[in-house]
Structures are given as C-alpha cells and as structure tokens.
Amino acid sequence: MLTELTDEQRLLRDTCREFAEKELKPNASAWDRAHTFPAEAVKKCAELGLFAVAVPEKWGGAGMDNVAYALAVEEISRGCASTGVTLSVSNSLYCDPVYKFGTDAQRERFLTPFASGQKLGCFGLTEPNAGSDAAEQRTLAVKKGDKYVINGTKNWITNGPVADAMVLFTITDPSKGTKGITAFLVETNAPGFLRQKADEKLGICASPSCTMFFDNLEVHESQRLGNEGDGFKIAMATLDGGRIGIAAQAIGIARAAFEGAREYAKVRKTFDVPISNHQAIQFMLADMATEISAAQLLTLRAASMKDAGVRHSRESSMAKLYASEMSGRVTDKSVQIHGGMGYSKELPIERHFRDARITEIYEGTSEIQRLVIANALLKA
Ligand code: CAA
After folding, report:
1. Contact (Cβ atoms closer than 8 angstroms) between residue 373 and residue 298
2. 60 plus 76 within the same structural domain
3. Secondary structure of residue 255 in the 3-state scheme
4. Which of 66, 69, 255, 366 is the most exposed place for a label (fewest CB within 10 A)?
5. DSSP assignments along 105-168, one per residue
6. Which atom of ligand 1 is least distant from the CA of 85?
7. Residue nearest to atom 47 of ligand 1 (CA)
8. Are residues 106 and 73 in the same domain?
9. Which atom of ligand 1 is nearest to the CA of 177?
10. Is residue 1 part of a domain?
11. pLDDT tens, per residue, the chain with 380 residues
12. Distance of alpha carbon 186 from alpha carbon 213, whole angstroms
C-alpha cells in the first residue's frame, strides 16, 4: 500500500515535480521577497488539475485520490511552499467539505468552478479568540425568515485576499457549545463581506492571508452547509484531511532544504576536502533523509486511510505533527551545513527555514495534534 504507487499517481507526481522544477523553484524567492501571490503559476496549477485532485471529474476535480493529492502538494511545495498551501487549502479545506457535505445545487455553484480552478476558495474557522480552541466561535448567525444575518470576524484566513468564496463557520446557538456551530458557503463579494489588507508574516510570504469582517452579511438558508449545529464536526472532519496537506507541504519544504544541503556539501571544501567527507555532515544528511522518509510514510498512510473511507484523525495528526517538526529540524540542519551561506538571502535555504515554521502552527499546532493523538489513544 505504501510503496506501490499506481501509474496515475506516479504520473501526477512526476508532472508536478517537473512543473515545480521549471516554473516554481526559479521564481519562489522573488515572489517571497516581493510578497507577491503567484497568480500565473497558480493558474497553471489549475490547468494541471491541482485545485481538487480527489474530487470527481463530474464536479470539476481531477477524479484521483488523496494519495495523489499528497504527492502533488509535496512536489509543488518543494518548488514553492506558498503555492503548496494555496493548493492545500483549495483541495482540503474548501473543495473537500463542499463535495462531502454540500447538496448538488451547492456543488454546482460552490464546487465546480472552484475544483476546476476558475475560482479559489478559503476556510473561515479561526477567529481572534478561537484559534486552538476552535469551539470558541463568536461569529454570530441569526436566522431572519429564509436568511441568516452574520456578524463577526475571522483572521489568518489563508487565500483570503484572493478567494472568491469561503466555507464560513458561525455560531447559531450559543447555548449549545460545539453543537451550536453552523457552516455556510459565502461569496466574498457579497455585501457586508469585508477584507483587510494581507497579513505580514515570517514565512510563506507569497501565500496571502488576511482578516475578514462580516457586517450584517445576509446569507440565504440554501447556502447553509449541512444542518444547523453540524458545523463543528464538518470543521474537524475537514481538518483531518487538511492536516495531510500540511504534512505534505512540510515534507516538500524539507526535501528542498535537504537537496540544497547535499549539493552544497559536495562542493564546499574545508580542511582541503568537500565537507561531505566529514562524518559530522554525513550523519546530518543521513538523519535528514531518514526523517523525510518516515514523514512520507506517515503521510501516505493517512492519505490511504482517507481514500479507504476510514476515520483517520489520529493518523493525520501523527503525520502533521511529525512532518512539521521534522521540517523544522531538517531546514535547521540545512542552514547549519550551509554555514554563513545558509543565513544569506542569496540562497533559498533561509526561505525554507522560515517557511517550515508555520507548518507547526496552522491547521492545529503541534500541541493540538498531540491532544488529538492522545485522545484517540486513550479511547482505544
Ligand atoms: N471528525 C468528526 N467529529 C469530530 C472530530 C473529527 N475529527 N473531532 C471531534 N469531533 C466531534 C467529537 O466527536 C464531539 O462530538 P460529540 O459532542 O457528538 O461527542 C465534538 O466534535 C466535539 O469534540 P471535542 O470535545 O473533541 O472538541 P474540543 O472542543 O475539545 O476541540 C480540538 C477539539 C481538537 C482541540 C479542536 O478544537 C481543534 O482541532 N483545534 C485546532 C483548530 C485548528 O486546527 N484550526 C486550524 C484553522 S484552519 C487553518 O489553519 C488553515 C490555514 O491557515 C492553512
């Protein structure tokens, strides 16, 4: 299961690898420095079918599976981690829940144009006081006739500044805790949907995120995703898939950092020999490659379980926890192997080091992943 890829999965992986090598890797540092969203490159990703890899073709997706999706995000992130998360959000956090929980009418309006890449989606769960504690939603949706009137704030919304629609989580009944949370599908150009300027961040600078405000935003009840009160479970089940995407992104970043270190070690000399002759460097490279492989196996296991339709919360959290912390260690070692050049903006290594950091934070911090894993272990 984990070593044998199908011809289709292999083909997608190789296509993404070539695309990343030619179109993303040469430009990623410039996009990062300019904080530019790579709209043209993202459009080409849409042409490759990367906006909704596992959504059926009938609804505009590529009709493949989650293993193929994880491989694609890894390869794309190896070239540009910002583009990697743009795609991960489109696949896992937007298209997946609309496909899974939406009606056919909702799929026509909110999935097909997004899965095919004409439009881009985002996921509105996080609020200023609802980060790790996602149940602390304050964005209020009040029913008035056949509409809901929504007021509140979401922040750190990846893809937010460029998104055409959002899966928006609100509270419809504050007395019911997690069972009072309800999800909606909302176009970002609706009256009362306001966006702030893009956030300034340490890494993934070509992936725009922002704060959004809802000021008496009116949403028809036909735009409710699932029933009233289903929102929290929709959010959690969606994040089970999203964490596979972030694990894959973390692996892509780590691979880029590892490959840079390996090549540099072969040409950089100290004490009259390439530094790759020194066991200190060899051991670092060996550890880096071993950890990358372990993260790949964990991630493909979680993706395979999602494809098999079995609950994979624990496995997704394990993959995300290990891959993100691994990416931190590997990018750190890559800076060390590069010495001063690793600290310089002349090489992409410092970018990989900065980009890796967010993978331990978004879609659930490492501490939240440990909670999910521990809860599952203790329930067994
Ligand atoms: N699938 C289905 N149902 C689930 C579930 C899952 N994975 N996880 C929990 N549930 C259900 C539970 O079974 C429970 O149902 P019942 O009440 O019927 O028993 C209900 O949801 C509540 O579950 P918990 O009691 O476990 O909920 P909690 O309040 O303790 O929270 C948590 C659990 C794991 C801490 C959760 O709040 C969490 O994951 N926090 C992190 C939030 C996060 O990851 N945010 C990321 C934002 S998006 C983002 O980052 C995108 C980006 O920028 C790229």
Report:
1. no
2. yes
3. helix
4. 366
5. HHHHHHTHHHHTTSS-EEEE--BTTBSS-TT----EEEEETTEEEEEEEEEEEETGGG-SEEEE
6. 54
7. 363
8. yes
9. 29
10. no
11. 456 999 999 999 999 999 999 999 999 999 999 999 999 999 999 999 999 999 999 999 999 999 999 999 999 999 999 999 999 999 999 999 999 999 999 999 999 999 999 999 999 999 999 999 999 999 999 999 999 999 999 999 999 999 999 999 999 999 999 999 999 999 999 999 999 999 999 999 999 999 999 999 999 999 999 999 999 999 999 999 999 999 999 999 999 999 999 999 999 999 999 999 999 999 999 999 999 999 999 999 999 999 999 999 999 999 999 999 999 999 999 999 999 999 999 999 999 999 999 999 999 999 999 999 999 999 98
12. 13
Q: Do 348 and 301 have their domain in common? A: yes
Ligand 1 site, residue 134, Cβ cutoff 6 A = yes
The CATH number assigned to the domain holding 156 equals 2.40.110.10
Ligand 1 neighbour 162 (Cβ under 6 A): no
Binding site membership of 89 for ligand 1 (Cβ less than 6 Å)? yes
75 and 149 housed in the same domain: no
127 and 53 in one domain? no
Q: Environment class of residue 290 by beta-carbon count within 10 Å: exposed (0-12), middle (13-18) or buried (19+)?
A: exposed
Do 253 and 293 lie in one domain? The reply is yes
87: Cβ below 6 Å to ligand 1?
no
What is the set of active-site residues? 363
Shared-domain flag, residues 106 and 159: no
**Spatial contact of 73 and 84, defined as CB atoms under 8 Å apart:** yes
Using a 6 Å cutoff on CB, does residue 372 contact ligand 1?
A: yes
**Considering the domain boundaries, does residue 269 fall inside one?**
yes
Classify residue 52: in a domain, yes or no.
yes
Residue 328 CA to ligand 1 center (angstroms) comes to: 25
Total domains present in the chain = 3
The pTM of this model reads 0.98
Please report the atom of ligand 1 found closest to the CA of residue 237.
Answer: 1
Q: Whose CA is nearest to atom 34 of ligand 1?
A: 372
Name the residue range of residue 102's domain.
7-115
